[in-house]
Structure formats: C-alpha cells, structure tokens
Batch of 4 targets.
Target 1
Amino acid sequence: MLLHKCCSIGLRTMATKPPHIVVHPEIRHALSQRQPIVALESTIITHGMPVPQNVETALQVEEVVRQNGAVPATIGIIDGCIKVGLTQHELMALAKKPRAELIKCSRRDLPYVVAMRQSGGTTVAATMIVAQRVGIQIFATGGIGGVHRDGHLTLDVSADLVELGRTPVAVVCSGVKSILDIPRTLEYLETQGVCVASFDSPGGVFPDFYTRDSGCKVPYNLSTAADAAKLLLAWRQLNLQSGVLIGVPIPAEFAAEKASIDAAIEAANAEAQAQGVSGKEVTPFLLAHISGLTKGRSLQANIALIKNNARIAAQIACSLQQKTAGEDHGPRKPLVVGASILDLSFKVKDKHDLHLDGATYKSVTKHAAGGVGRNIAEGIFKLHGDVNLISAVGDDHFAHMLRQLMPAALQRHLVVDERNATSLCSVIFDRSGDCRLILGDMDIHDSITPEALLAHSELFRQAPLIVMDSNLSEQAMSCTLQLAQRFQVPVFFEPTDMFIAGKPFKLKNELTQHIRLLKPNLHELKAIVETITGQPVELQLDTKMERSELLKQTKKLLKQIDMHFNCIIATLGNHGVLLSCRSDAETDPAKLLSLSPAREEHTTLFYAPAKLQRIVNVSGAGDSFCAGFITALLRKQTEHTLDECVAAGFASAERALLSESAVPRTYFKDAQTFESYVQEILHKMQRQRI
C-alpha cells in the first residue's frame, strides 16, 4: 500500500524512510487526545486563488478553526511527502513554487507525485483520503467538484463524487461549485449512497457556492452544529464506509445575484471552450475568469464562504467530540470559575435601627464558606453529583478555615497564592435579616490568571456548561470566554454585584456571545443594560414597588438586551423571578445551552414561589437557585421542562433560606426526593406570561 498511517496512537507507522504521510506533532497530539480536528485542503493555495490571497486566506481559515474550538490540519504535498498539518513556513513554501511545477492532486495523482518527489495541492478527493487514513473525520472546503455541464455527453465527472461514495469523511462546504451541473451532481451523489444535507437552510434548499439557492433541494436540513453532530455520530456508528456532504449557504452579505453570476459562468464556459481548456484545468480557469468578469467580487465571496464553512465545521467537530466524550468518560462535569470567600456575618439584635454612625450594635456573629462561584459549585456538587471549581485562596489561617468548610471535591483545582490573603467578606444584616452592608477583601481573585486557566483547559473542554462569576479580572474573564469559544461551551454568567456586573460586556462581542444565560438582580440588570447599550437607564427599580409596575418596568429593561442571550433570569426579591428566554426553549429547555442565536422574539415569564413562613438566612438563596436550575437543565436521566427547571431553582433556594449557612449541609437526601419536591413546588408556584 502506497499510503501509510504514521500517527502513533492506534495507527501504523511507516516501515520505510522517508514516510509518505507525516503528521505534524500538534495534530498527532490532538488525535491522541481525541480533540476536535478539521482537515483543510491546499488547492486554494496552489490552484484556487491568486497570490497573495491564497496564503492569507489559508492562514485566516486556520485561525477561524482555532477560534471555534478545533485544531486545523491543512493537508498538502511537498517534495513527495504528504503533510498533515502544514506549518506557516510550509504553506509559504508551497505558495512560492511556480504554478507549472505544482500538481493538482486527486486520488489518481498521488502515486506519481509521491514517487517522483513532486509537490502539489490536494483536491477534495485526495484530502478525504489522507484525512481518513490518519483518523480525521471532518473536512472543510469551499465547494466540491461535480458533474460538468454537458457531463452526460463528455462523462466529465469529478473524482470528488466517487470519493464521497467510498471514503468515510464528512465534508462541510458551500455545495457544488456554480460552474457545474448541480441537479445531475446531486443525482450522482444519491447513486453513490452519499448522505447529503443542507445546514441552517430551511426546506433543505441546497447552496451553489456563490449563491444561497441552487434551485435544488436535498432531503435533510441540519439546523445546528449539535444536529449535525448527532447525524455524524449515527453515521460513524453505522460504519457505512461512505462520506457525508453538508451544504452551508454562503453568508447572505456575500451572496451573488443569481442572474449575474449565471451570466458570468456562461461567458467563462464559452471562453474555456474557445481556448481548448480541458480536464482538471477547467475549474481553476473558470474561477479565475469569473473573478475577472465580476471585478473580484467572486473572489471575495469565495474567501468569505470558506471561512464560514471552516467555522461551521469546527463547531460540528467540537459538538461531535463532546458527544463522544460523554460516551467514553461518563457524565460531563460542569465547571465553575469564580470566588471562594470566608464569610463573616453579623446580624444586629439591638432594637435600635441600624445606621452607619460609628455606634456599636449588639449582633450574632457567624462564619461560613462563601463566594458566589464557590456557593454555586457546592450547590451543583450536592444536587447534580459532581462539578469542577477553579478558584483562589491564600496560604493563611483563613484559607485553613475555608478549606475545612468546603467539600474535598471542590479543592482539586484551587489556586494557592502565598502573596495574598484569602478573601474575607463581612456582611451586616439588620434585625429583619436584610443585608445592609458588605465589606470585602477581594485581591486574591486576581490570582485566577489566564495562565492558571489555560493550565486547566481540559476542564473547559469536558464541561457541558461553564459558570463564571464577576469577581474575576477582565483578563481572566477574557481567557474564560476564549476557552469557551475554543471548546464551544455555553457560559452561565452570575453578575455578583452591581458595581462589577457589566465587566464582561466591555470585552469583544465574539467573546461575550458565548454568555448564553445570566441571573442578575435589578441593580445588576440595570448595570448590564447600561454597559451593553452605552446609554444610561433612568428607571428607578425597587422590589418594594407594586408588583405589576415592577414587572412592567423590568420587562422594558430586559427587552433592550434579551436578543444577546438565550435566557436572562431577573431576580425580584421575594416576588420571584422574571425570566426572558428564547421562545423555542419553552418546549425544549436544552435550547438554553445552544450557541446558535435565536431567530424568534423572546418570551417573558414571571414565576412566583409559595411564601415561606420562616426564613433563617438569605445570603445563599440566589446561588442555590442557580445550582438547582442548572442541575435540572443538565440532568440527562430526567428531561425537565422549563417550568421544572425554575421549580428546581425555587426548591433549592427554599432549602437555603431555611439553612444557617449559605449552602445547606444537605439539600435533599437523594435525587428521587429532589425530583419529588420539584414537582411539589411546581404545583405551588405561580406562572404568568408578561
């Protein structure tokens, strides 16, 4: 066999030197760690685009793949060696070779190019072959070859179609190149047994490279990367030994007007015939000629669509990796990144009203483990079963006290900073139990550095959800969101405090778009709206307002920002919560974790819990609500409705209100008791569409 596998994990190595396939160490490591990888072809460098756009585009496409959580593996041939994971130097070297010396390599060309130590770019067919040999399942490209116009007479049919029928690689592209006979190409793919689907194209409308609608439809449409991953998982399990083709429409702003592009194609075809261009030279000739006729607009469209395809392919690869990781390693652990604090609480027992006047007030003093991130993590640990926490403590007496109060499972990934004191928070409650003042030493949280987070990147990769509180520095938030972007994991944001609630929304939009859920109180919501919109909020909201007016004004605030998120849970004190969520989540709460933007307006729902006769402590109720809501959302054994997720939050918050500590020693004796109590709360709570 001419082509051999040389990846060391589960793949054969070459018996002779030099190897025909060389896998870059980064790709070899990614394969061994089962990280998401996207293969990329190299004919855009050697034949598809002019200099310098070819190299610029190749590097930009690789960066798009990385930004979306996967590892790019550009495949090409240099001096007879098939490279998987071309370096920037190798890309430049390939681009600098004279075009006449470069071979456009399909399946038939590989033996000659390798034997004669030639160089070339790999077509869709050749890239599929090499990707499959080394274990890469997903491949992104611009468009595939197909049946040429008049192909029924000339029998000019691209080898890409035959390869799709016999090589199990999923190809993500913008359909069949517009210069080809698309209806006959789809018929040929059907004959080859290739599963063909459109992506985010309702009705299965299939794209044709430069335009979003080829005039043809395919049987299936995949709405999201998660849907595509489900299909690919079943495809892999069935072991069909044939490829999958996923057609992604070109972004609308770059799509050509169909009549004008058809006219350019007709003119280019006529010119190709006049010049006697044939065989594998036809496609690059036509693309170059069309670019000239459209004054470069088609080249810009080509660049835009390959970047978009790379983005979608990376998201699919990440989603597929998450599904297979769940199969291989059991339940995935949510990750919390945030503060761990030792709380000292003082509840005034004097009859005098509390004033900040320098007087001494008699109080009851207690200490407990606290910190929003830590509280939520402990709540999830006790309700969900397991969780990972990244937080920071000092190397001092307070750290010793705090650790004694924390479950051992939450201490696995603590950052210990000998230079800073463990965070200490003094909370003052009045006689009625309302919090009046908080004083905190928070410097230790800056020890959660980007370097510390990157050292725990595997925790991010394995998480179904990342919970981030606002005690982190902007640099740590940026790194957290970059890792969420890399591994395509949704983020639940807990704003923590009105003065720091808007912090993450000062970052770039491509990072903050991974924040899919958040739970602010009224003051935090106001700060977030002001940060996102850049406009001051004049409304003066207070939970002591009459309920109908409070709901009306809060909804106004939510409507200013709701389309940025899947779900905003605005807490309204003892009134309950006002929840603004994407409409499709009412019937499918899993949509709250979706990274794809919602297309419909949000639904606004008010939930009011049953009144408690006795309240012991209010300090951890909001954090416990988060823990219960998240537990119900993530629990696979029992699929919960949206109302049940809210009821789970109320059930957990109620137990916290009746506890001396922010997080109860035990919420419920077992999962069955939790589920039973959720149903009890569900029947007691009020629900109103606003």
Note: The radius of gyration is 29 Å.
Target 2
Amino acid sequence: MTIDKSWTTIRRRGSSNEFWNGLQHFLQMAKPFVNDRGFIKCLCRRCLNNASHQLEDLESHIFRNGFMFGYNQWIHHGEPATSNAGITVAGPSGGIHERDEIFDVLDDIISEDADEEAVGGSSSNEQYDDLFVALRSELYPGVSSFSSLNFLVKLMHLKVLNKWTNKSFDELLKLLKLAFPKIDLVESHYEAKKLMTKMGLGYSSIHVCKNDCVLFWKENSLKDTCPVCSESRWKLQSGKRSGKNVPHKVLRYFPMGPRLKRLFATSKTAKLMRWHSTGKSKDNDVIRHPVDGKSWQEFDKRHPQFAGDVRNVRLGLTADRFNPFGNMSLSYSMWPVVLTTYNLPPWICMKAEYLMLSLLIPGPQSPGKDMDIFLRPLIDELKELWVHGLDTRDAAYENGVFRMRAALLWTVNDFPARSSLSGWSGQGYRACPTCNEDTPSMRVIGKTTYFGHRRFLPTNHHWRSNLQFDGRTERKRPPRRFSMAYILEQLRRVKTGIPGKHPNYGGVKRKRGDDQLNWRKKSIFYELPYWVDIELKHNLDVMHIEKNMCDSLLGTLLADPHKSKDTDNAIRDLAKLGIRQELHLFEDGNKLMKPAADYTFSEANRRKFCHFIRSVKFPDGFASNLSKNVAQNDSRLLGLKSHDYHVIMQRLLPVGCRSLVSKNIWSTIVELCTFFKQLCASTVNVSDMVEAQK
C-alpha cells in the first residue's frame, strides 16, 4: 500500500485535520523503529535527521518546525526502501488527539517557528515540549473529551471570570487531586502560571526605585542601589537585607509585539485588521471610526510608506488610576496602561478581549511627573515596531508573511492623566493646553476660574454682547492655533528636572520660570519619530467629561450641599463682578440669606424628580437599578457610576426636569443633553457638531 505524504507540505497545520491525521499515522508507523533507548531520528526542518529524540518529542518538533523537504522515502521511519511514494488515505487518529481546540492555539503561538524559512527566523528549542506533553495527556484515564492542557486553560479562565483568589485555586486543585487520584493536573496555581507563560500569557517584572527615580532595567539591571537617590533596590529589615531579595516596587510589562502578531494568526481576525481600509465611511460628513477623522488622514499623508500597507497597526493609549483594594479606606493608586487597536471595526476595537494591558504601574502613589520613567519599556518597543517592525504571518492569505509595523496615534485620558502624559500642567492660570499661553483666567474666592468661552462663538452671535456672563462684551477671536514648531520651541526652554520623589532630589518642588509656561517636562512620546506629525496627540475622554458635567448639574438642580456649584463663595464672586444682582446675598436681620435661584428645584420638586428617577424601568442590561441610588428622603442621588450618569444625562434629565424649571432653563438643559447624545452616538455628523457650536 502506498503512503500519503501530501500532508507534509501543509503550512497551516493547526487548522488542518489532514495534517493532524497524517502525523498520527506517521508516528504509528515509526513507533516500531525506535532504538533500545526509545529514540528515533527527527525529520523536522530544524533537525533534518541529524538529531534523535523520543517519539513524543518527535511529534512536537514536526508540528512546530514542519516536515523537512527532500525526505521522500522514510527509510529511517518504517518505509521500505523500495516503496513507491504514491498517494493513499492516511490512517485515522482517535482518542484525545483528535482535533483538540488547544491544538489551534499552540499553532498560533509558535507560527513564527513553524514557518522559519519563510520568515527567516530560527525555532526555539524545547520551550513548547511541556505544552505538547500536557496536550497529549488524557485528563483522566478513559476521558477523551479533555486533554490535561485544555482542562487547565478552562479552569484558569473560570478563575479570572469569577475572581478566585490564588489560595482558593490551590484548594480546588487539592480537592480535585483528592477526589480523582489519577487525574493529570498541576499541583498549584504557581505551576499553572508557569505553564500558561509558555502560551504567551506572561509578563516581564521590572524593579523600580522606591522613589520612582529609575527602572532597574537594561543598564541598571545589575545595580542594588538607585543611581539618583542612592536608596536600596531591596526591602531591608533592621537596616539589613533579608535572606530573600524583595524589591520595593515591581512594574509589570506585557510586551505587545507577540499579541499584535496573534491578531493576524487567525483568518477571521486578520481580515478584520483591514477594516479601517475597506469599511471607512464614504460620506465626508459622517464619522464612525477614527479613520474618518482629519488627524488619521493627515498622518497617512505624511507617512505614505506606513499607510501603504493597510495591515500596519494603529494604536491608541489610555491610562488611569484605580484602587485595587476596592472601596476600602486604604489610599492606594495603581495605574494600568492599556492599548487599543484601531485597525479593527468600531464595534470590536473597544471590547475587553481586544484591549491590551501593556503596563501595570505600582502604587501606592500616583506616578505624576515621573510617568515617563514607567513608560520607558513601552516607548522602546514602539520605536522598534516603527523602525524595524516584526515579521508576521498573515492567516488571511496562504503563505502570507509581511513586515508588520505599528504607530501610536494618540492618547485618551481624563484631564489629570493627560497632564502626567503630555507634560503640560492642568493647574494654574494657564491650565488649558489648547489656549496655551493665551488661557483667559482669573482668581476668585478659593480657586482659579477660566472664562472667555464666548470667543468660540461666531462674531455676530448675540451672546457676545450679553453682559450677564462677566460684565463685559466679548470681542476676542477664538484662540490662535499654535504650530508644532512653536510648541517645540517652548519645550526647548523647559529645564530637565531630577526624576523621582525623594525629598532631597526629585521631590524638591521647583518653581517654573515664565518662559516655561505650564510645561513640567518634555514628554517621552516625543522620542517616537512620528509624534511631531500627529495633530491630536492627547484627547480627553468624553465619558469623564459627561460624568463630571452631569454630577455638577444634578448637584446644582437638587441643591446638594456637597456637589452644588451654587455656593456662597460663587455668589460673592458674582457680587464682585457686578452681575446677576438677583442672586446676590442679602441681609435678613442678623442673617445673610441666599435667594432661591430659578435653576434649582424647590423642595417639593426635588421629591418629584427623585420619585421620577425611582420609578423608571429599563430593559435588561440597559442601565442599573437607579432606584437604589435615590436617598431615603428623596432629596438627592447617591453612589452613581459613570454609566448611570450617561443614562441620566442623555435619557432622563430632559424629561424629568421639564415641568420643574422654567422654560429657558429647561431648553438650555435639553441642548446640553442633546449635544452629548450626538457626541456619543455611534455615527457622528460633522454638520451637527458645527451647528452645535453656534
């Protein structure tokens, strides 16, 4: 009987039943020809029959490296020398090896090694052998539906979804071992993590100075003390280092190159990575994806070579603080840095499974001005991806290998995080990064306020001549637009400070000169070769803005003493400006009284509004149960989340306050809510945004 060898030339081995069945039939044929030590010549493209391995290792080598070329008669593996290399049907494979889904995952992970002659790389030695052993192992004798590796992956997935602690996971493994003595499973969560790391789910731990001065990385990796503040890298006990070296801080870095390559490892996702080229809007008045915006289009014009291959990756970055200890009183600020891929369609790129955690910056303090210290590994990788790129297999095309490059288009943050990333301080008299040195501001009681918003209106708008805003007419034009050359000249004047928070070094507060404006540093993003060509470098997150606006609006309408903007100091400021006399404080005997404003609810109307919020019913999954957020005395709303503010602002507020305030107040609220509704829509009309500014 002739032997089918057509399966040996299949490149997409993980998704081919033919390759898997042929490989199993080959191993069965070669099994009787192992030597007395259980070894046989390996015919993978790396070993080329020059090395010998055990039969189970031979399987992983062929799968990982591919079948060697030119070996047409398998004389070392059971085929007689006179055999005719004809074609027949390969024997069936059964049991657990029959199309385990993890097989495809492993094929994606080691695809670079499997196609080494196409890419020009070299395969890793034995790093995947443990995975193949776990893939071949039955979970329990007689159970063919699960391999040991498949079961472990699903168990780890359940741990993440249900937030099991490491200790509870260890206890579960012990229980499974006790109940099923013959089960083939790891002993602890630590061993499970070691195995998962080989599947590309690991990260790099980088030690950090306790004062955030430097990373103990690259040139500082072997140092035991900080080169800036001379503090020890390790935690000390009684002035001495303990038996085990424990660092003060650890930065977790998740390399993005392998994860970007994996987006092209399956044909479905590889095709979606071209969506920004094939699915963009044909109407110039419609924006439904960043590719329809001016900043993206200008970037493509300035970098035509990068834009020439639609598979090159466009990234966005966001960072924000959170307390990993939940609502505990412990003050702790940890900062995740997350990347999103804008090549994907808008209904996919923001889903959790396509967001890539890049850095996990440790606390307990916010990095602040030292954010660049922690961004160093990410920036170095971004520069490498821009200049050299990565050889990547494109599963959408057979045998498709291309040089993938990547660019960071912008960041999206709230205002405090924007200050840490951009280097422009969001405090002081020049806090606005757009107006820059022309920021209109003045000092009022207890804070700095910013005015001059009527400058953005058309020159003939009637609000420009209204004296109710600040007692003056507005004749200024919109703020000038600063060129990149002018911004770089400003940054050239910025003095480089000492990094870190040590009280004798980087923690010393220094006063900025007038020529430095509000610049605290030149951001590390300017090390990227293309950063100066990006028009919108740092964007504000509309979710935070909408939440803050709605919070202040509700606080003022409900006269919440903790959140209302209609404070006594605000009214005194109105008196100093000589405007809104009907709102000024007045004396009633020995007391100062505040008049009731028409933009606040009366006590009866507060109850009506809260009762309205309490009575609203939503479809499942649309919003949370807002009735739980209404205070018992129906006087205010408590404990609202960002999505709750989103629903109230765009759906409930225009309806709920219609009969509770005057018509001019209600119409203004409706216009504000309509603006956010248009801005947050899945499709934005440019003409609507232009009209909203008038």
Note: The longest helix spans residues 371-387.
Target 3
Amino acid sequence: MNRRVRMMIMKPLSLRSLSRYVPFISTLGLNSNPVNPISTFSRLYWSETVAETAVVKDDVETVFRIVSSASSTRNLKESLKSSGVFLSNDLIDKVMKRVRFSHGNPFQALVFFNYTNKRKGFYHTPFSFDTMLYILGRSRRFNEIWELLVEMRRKDRSLVSPRSVQVVLGRIAKVCSVKQTVESFRKFKKLVPEFDTACFNALLRTLCQEKSMRDARNVYHSLKHNFRPDLRTFNILLSGWKSAEEAEGFFDEMREMGIEPDVVSYNCLIDVYSKGREIEKAYKVLEKMREKEISPDVISYTSLIGGLGLVGQPDKARDVLKEMKEYGCYPDAAAYNAAIRNFCIANRLRDAEKLMDEMVSKGLNPNATTYNLFFRCFYWSNDLGRSWSLYQRMKKTGCLPNTQSCMFLTRLFRKQEKVEMGLELWNDMVENGFGSYILVSDVLFDLLCDMGKLVEVEKCCLQMMEKGHKPSNVSFRRIKVLMELANKHNALQTLTEKMAIFGPSTQVQERVENVVEIPDLESPPC
C-alpha cells in the first residue's frame, strides 16, 4: 500500500484515545483550550503529520475546481467524497487561499469550510478560519460571519483571535460608520478568549486603514481607559499621520507613559517627515536611531527614498540604495519599487528600467507593484505596445497581475478597440485566478458591446457567474438591450436565469470597495 493510499484511509483518533495525551502535551508547554483541551494536539496531529506528506499540487487544484464549479451544496459534498483527496489542514489552507485570491464564490467556500469543519476530531487552522471570514466580509455576508464566529466559539474559541477581529472589522468599516464599527468591536467581548489590548489594537489599525487617523485618535482617547495601551498601540497610531505635529504628539505621549520607542516607532516618524517633504528631519531621526543603537531597517530607508522622490531628487534616492548596504541593510523589492517610482514620476523610464534589471540581477523578483509603475506611465502615454510587451514579460516570469494591472491594460484595450487582447487577459484571469472580475468586466463588456461581440460577452458573463460574481446592473442592462435587438432571446434567457441565482441584491458594493483599492487610476503621474 503506497503512502498516498495510507494517508487517505487515516482516521483521527477518538476523543477518548486522545485524552491520554493531554498531560504529555502540557509538558511540552503547548497552550490548552478551556473549551476543547485537546484541540492543540488535534491540530498538531492534523497539521504537522500531514504537512510532512507535502500536499500534492494536483490535489489542491482538484479540490479548488470542485469548490469553484459545484452546482449545488449536495454536488459539492458528493464530489469531495468521490475525489479521493485527503483533506488535510495544509491542503485546505491552500484551497482557501486560492478561493480568496481568485475572488471565488463565497457561498461555495463556506459550504466547503463547514463540510470539513464537521469532521470528527478535525479543527481548522487560524489561517483557514480568518481567510473564510475575509471571503465572507468581502461579499458583505455579515450575518454568516457572526454565525461562523459563534460556531467557532462553541467548538474552538482559541481560533477567534485579534487577527480575526481585525479581518472582520476591516470589512465592516468599509461600508459602515465609525460608530457601527466600534459597536461591532464590542460584540467580540463574548467571542474572543481574551478581550484585551491586542483586540483594541486591531480596532485602531482598522480605523487607521479604513477611516481616518482622526477617527482612530478619537476612539483611542474614548476607550484607552478600558485597556492598557502598549508599544504596538502607539506604533499603530503613529503609522498613518500626514501631520508631523500630531505624530510628534503621540510620540511624546508614549514616552510620558514610560514606553520606549522601537525601530517601528522611529520608522513612523521618518515616514511622516518624508511624506511631508521634511527630508532634513527624516535624516535627523536616522541619526538619533544610530545614537540609541537602534539600527535603521529597510523600511527606514524605503521611506527616505520615497521622500527624496517627492522633493525631486531621484538620483539621490538611488544612491540611498547603495549607502544602506554600508550599514549592513540590503534593499528589498519595496525599496527598489520606491526608487523606480521616483524615476517614473520624473518620466525617466530608461533609468527606471535599469533599476528593475538591477533588481533581477540581485535575485529580487519584480512584483505586481513594480510592473504597475510602468503600466501607469504607458497608460497615460497611450502606449499599448509596451504595455502588452510588459504583460507578456509578467506571464513569462510567473508574476500574476493584480486588479490595478488588469485595469490599466483593459482600459487601454478599450481605448484602442483591441478585442483579442482583452479576451486573452480575461481568459488568463479566469484560468489563473487574479484580478477583480467586477471591475474588469465593466470595462471589457463595454468594449465587447461597442464592437458587437455578443457571443464573446455572453461567454465572459457565464464564466464570471460560474466563479460566483454577478455582473453589474449597468453592464447587464446594456447586454440585455443589445441581445434583444439581435434577437438572441435564448442566450438572454440563459443569462437572466443565471443572474436570478444571485437574488435582487447586486455586488455594486464590492465594486466600490475595489475602486478604493485602486487609487490614482484616473490621475497621471505627477
């Protein structure tokens, strides 16, 4: 019997047989769970033992396809049973990650999550649980989120962590007021094992990211007496200020409370000074760090590089890449991206390209952010040829575009009426699971409708809905009118029936969310 077959027939030990190991687990120093004292061992058993088998990539693909294409809950469960794939924690984590980044069907993902969760002796990892919360939150399924949280509190409360709090509040804050976000935060008091400063920090980070620093500051002052602010609290509050004066105020308050700043704290000051074009102050912070024997890290220098670009000194910023090495700090992809961005802003693309080549020579892979810096320039110069060549380079190197990349390309296709290129990008999205179907489809469907490509737009609509995403009402109304004029009543009936599955609500809210995630698309580099 080969190893694969042995793993498939393995069964988790019963709770009774596992109980004998609890004392032994305690001696290892593992945290026990008051609700389920053996959950730690069970997770260890399922994760560590099975992880050693190195989940086969084909198995991940098989399960992902089942979750993505199942026609019903029953069909999904039966397909999983008949697949013969061993559903380990490692495999489930990878599948959930695929669903998240492919913008998969949230309902099917929840069915899969609950199906595996109900197996006797099985416990999800924090990663799969938080990913499921994110997928539900992105689709505004807040009722399902609270139901899932209550269920996990009952089965394994240790899974509901400060990270979970931040994931949920982050999605709520996108569409709700600050007051509603804080009210949702208070609900977690009955859900998390410890409603402490870590949870408070999760709330503050959410407000900094999704609302404003002023909102975060106000909530901090109103709730700080209920918690004990720590170094991380102040680092969060320092991390997003545009006003150097207010950042300095929190820095002083931190010291008054006897909390010594660390490298993250100083990096926040460097960042706010750099963004405010106060480069001399940023350099003084670097010197102060060295005086206190706190070594500036790559983030320190990356902020400085960005600031030098803002004051029109891209060459000096490039020199920082070399100077930081003298202090034993080596630039990463983000540092190079900051330097490349400076040259793109200055419209010195040749220098920017040289830096990207230098990245590769140093063993650093350009990421989607790197390519987007060039896509933005090509978009505003209406240079489809270079944009398309750059996209082909991305594919060749295995770098998946993100939503911003897709939007730059698709809008260029529409401006220059390049249907074949648009369809190739769309098919790559469907096959490889990148980009937002909601945003890209609106632009692509406009192109296809303008060019009278109704067969193609019908196919794209069906592909999109099979992935669990509903075309916007604006797009569908236009497609409907054109199909009626072309007497394509059967095709229109099929699309209408598919649309009805999603119910009366639309995913316009998700469109709004994704627009927020693509800043400055309508503004040329400056």
Note: The two ends are 65 Å apart (CA to CA).
Target 4
Amino acid sequence: MGSLENERPLLEDGLLQDEVGGLYTGDGSVDFNGNPILKRNTGNWKACPFVLGTECCERLAYYGIGINLVTYLTKQLHEGNVSAARNVTTWSGTCYLTPLIGAILADAYWGRYWTIAVFSAIYFIGMCTLTLSASIPALKPIECNGTFCPPATPAQYAVFFFGLYLIALGTGGIKPCVSSFGADQFDDTDPKERVQKGSFFNWFYFSINIGALISSSLLVWIQDNVGWGLGFGIPAVFMAIAIASFFSGTAIYRFQKPGGSPLTRMCQVLAASFHKWNLEVPKDSSLLYETREKSSAIEGSRKIEHSDELTCLDKAAVISDAEMSSGDFSNSWRLCTVTQVEELKIVIRMFPIWATGIVFAAVYAQTPTMFVEQGTMMDTSIGSFTIPPASLSTFDIISVIFWVPVYDRVIVPIARRFTGKERGFSELQRMGIGLFLSILCMLAAAIVEINRLQIAEELDLVDKQVAVPLSICWQIPQYVLMGAAEIFTLIGQLEFFYDQSPDATRSLCSAFALLTTSLGNYLSSLILTLVTYFTTKGGNVGWITDNLNEGHLDYFFWLLAGLSLLNMLVYIVCAKQYKQKKAT
C-alpha cells in the first residue's frame, strides 16, 4: 500500500480563474433551477448541517429497527436463534442491495436530490407499517403460555415483513445518494474545499453513530421494558424529522446533473470494442476519440486521462476508416470517447478492492446477531440494573464517536507530516488498517466465548439454557475493536468509492461500496447455514444451537478470524497494484 502514487490535485486544465478560486464552482454543480452556482452562498459546510442532520435522524430510525430486531423475532415472533439471525442478516443484506436501484435512478435520471426525496417517503411508510404491526393486537402473535410460544400467523408475518422490506427499499434510495450528495457540496476543483470534503466523510460517519447511539441505548431499553409499539413508533417520528431536515437546505444545496445511465455507457464500450476487435489500438493515445471541448461529452463529468491498462477496451475509442471518411461520430454503440472507456476501466480496477470488503462486512454482521446472542447467555446485571444484550453495541458506537474527532483533528495532521498526503493516509492504507483491526475483534470474541463455555462446564450448565455467571462487560473489547475497524475501513470506503469513481457514476459506485455490506450479510447467512449443516451431521449438537452452552460459538468466531486474515493478505496485494484515477 505504501507504493501507491501520491494523490494529485484534480484541477481541470484551463479553468477560468473565477471558477477555481472566485465566484462560481468549477465542478459543474448548479443550483436548484439548473443555473451556475455561486460558491460563497452555497454548499460547503453551510449546507452540511442539513445533510448531516438528515443522516443522523435516518440512521436513528434504521438502527432503531435493526439493532434489536433479532430480539423482536425471537421474543415476539417466537423464532429460533438460527432462523432469527438468518432473517436479520438477510434483511440487512437487502438494505445494502437495494441501493443499486436508487443509484441507477440518481445517476441516470432523477439526480441525487429527488432520489433521496422519493425513497424517503417509501421509507416512512414502511416505518409506519412496522409500528402498526407491533401495536395492534391482531397483528402480533399471542404471548407465550409457560414454555409454549405460539408462532406468528402467515398474515402477521406478511404485515411485519412487508413493512420491514419497504424500509429496505426506502433506504436503497437514501444510502448511495446522501453521502455523495453531501460530498457534492464541496468543489472538487478547489484545493481547500477538497481537503474539507475529506473531513466531511469523517463527520458524516460521526452523525450516523450519534443516531445509532440513541437507538442502541435509549430505544433498545424502551423496546425491552416499555413496549415494541412505542419502540418502533419513535424511529418513525425521527424518520419524519429526517425528511424535514433534508428539504430545509434546498436553497443552499449544490446539485450535480444526472449524466445518463452509466450501465448503458459501459455496455456501449463493450459493444464498440467487440465490434472493432480486429482494429489495432494506436500507440499514440491522442489519436483515440475524445471531444474537443474542455468538458466531457457525459453530462456532469470531467474528462479522464487515458490509462495504459485494459487496452482491449481502447478499441471502442479507435476511429475506423469508415468513421473518418464519413465524419459521423454520433453512434455511441460503435465509437466511444476516451472518458467513456476510462469509466469502465476504473470500475474494473476498483473491483478487487471492492471484493475484499465482503469478508469485512461478514465480520461486521456479527455485531447485531451473534454478539447479541452471545450476550444473552452472559450475566447482564450490574448491581440492580439489567443491561439489554443489544445495548452493548453502544460501546461500538462510542468507540466510533470517540475516534472520529481524534482521527480528524489529531491523527490526520500527524500522519500528514510523515506521508505528505493531504488526508494523512490514502484511502487504501486506511482501509487496510481497519481490516487488521477486524481480525483482532474476532479473536477477542472467540476468547470471551472460550471462557464462557469453560465456566458453563465447571458449573454444570452445559445442558441448561441459562445465562452463565460471566459479566457481559467482557464483550466490551470486541465492540470497541469493531468500532475502531469501522473508522478506518468503512469511512475509507466512503472516500475511496467517491473520489476514485468517475464523476457521473458516483452514486452507482457508492452503491457498489454498500453492496459489499449486502454480500457480507449474505455471506454471513451462508456461513451460518453451512456451519449448522456440517456440524449437526450424525446427530451432533453443532456449533450454534438454541442453547449456546451446548455449542461452540468460539469455533465460529475463529473461522471468521481466519477468513479475515486471508482476506487482508489478498487486499494488500490488490492495493499495491491499484492505480489512482487521473481527471483532467
């Protein structure tokens, strides 16, 4: 990772003086009506409070449902541990899969602003549906009678999961757009604003965790001790506040115009390069087709310099004799600009880095599932106060809230002196540090589980589904390590997929970053399924059972630690070979 090229300013050649440092932005942003926009009165940190407030309230609503969802499924809908964990990770994975829908709509047609607006409404309807399902007696199962817990009816399941997956759809339009929309408020052609944009991603993640802190502490307590109707109703109210906060900043936002479907442009490159497979790519890249104007032919995008990788795709930009003689360069399925070709090259180059985020996401998926289930079998009392197991995720969040300002105000300035990079570490270096910390997190969880099982055996509690007298506070280190890993890896991903993506595909690339979380959740579900299948063969109890005292959850954590180590080694190789984007 240390051999990567130094970050370079992304200033456009030949920009007018008033575009770079004067009156207007130089990155193509416009106001709400589509007119060139003044720097002084718009965007920058002036617009960020509205974006950060929106994200804080939306994340409070999301985590208000997600953090304690496994408890609702087991205690209210009477599901088993494995079924509940699988449902939570599948839903969470879907929440990170639907952003592909929102991203395509934002980049191609609606723009980020209107995509956020429309999907926020869908989100709010889902929140209200979920609240009703937990409040109306006919929509929830009958309470347990002793040890007998009647399952939910198909109708009750239908209403609950309808609301739950409306939320998954709604978040699909918000997740890939809101961080990019916030970053759009900083002019990428202004060196000062570009540095501030790096700081924005830190505080964006900080605002996420402020919302998550309230959810994992106050809302979890309300859900466990007051009622699920109120526990789901409060997040619905905060979602309404998020919508109001977002619209409040409309007058001072900077907007990027949608550039048309990025998927179509990529298909055009593939089609044109295949059609011209027999043509030779000229050694002089200046002979490849590109518009003569300063701006790119793609709406809302700067030109991208030609790269020497994946030269087979350069055939799409080779001007054939027929095109030269006719002078007709209008068929994008036969001739593409260098910038259009480089768009696809960038996405392909980012793929290995993207893929290594999947295992990290599988590790992160244990926080609301296996960590919580581990905590339910530990001593949750401190004096006369009982700690809900899901509330331990508060320490993950507190770790993030602590490290964000420390990283932004202390670590970055110190690192900048040694690396010479304006953000202290490159995005790739930052993500690599986080991958290492995630390994330590799994090791800490495994050690806690080994001690818990040892105590259960000593006290003859193996066959009894009761909590072991080991304080739940021993889980704190694994949550703190996960929070530190998030600061490096997840914020690094936000920066990487925004900065390295082509201008007109930033929502889509942000969605790809979120897709790693989705696939990580699905990978976690797959691993759970495979582990359950293979470890229960021949009548064995298995690693993960409803009575964790009988199982070996520690083996599961060791397995994830091993996968994480292998993943980190692959990541280091990919990061060393990665070449940075060069915009002109």
Note: The CA atoms of residues 199 and 409 lie 9 Å apart.
